[in-house]
Design brief:
single chain; about 70 residues; alpha+beta; 3 helices; about 40% helix
Length: about 70
Amino acid sequence: MKGVDDGRITAIVDQDAYQIGYQVIEDLVKASKGKKLDKTIPIDVKYVKAADLKANGVEKSKIKTTETDK
């Protein structure tokens, strides 16, 4: 986090990797059933200030699931 510490990085734009992965699986299921896929899938992004990067990382690390549809 040298760039944050020396002031070169003041914020980041963070994509929701969990949601990206979720949407990929949803589209794989649709495609396997012969359904039409959307040309674009909007994924929200979040502006994270440098001071909040560590806390944001901690929160993101909690996003997990152990459930699967049967």
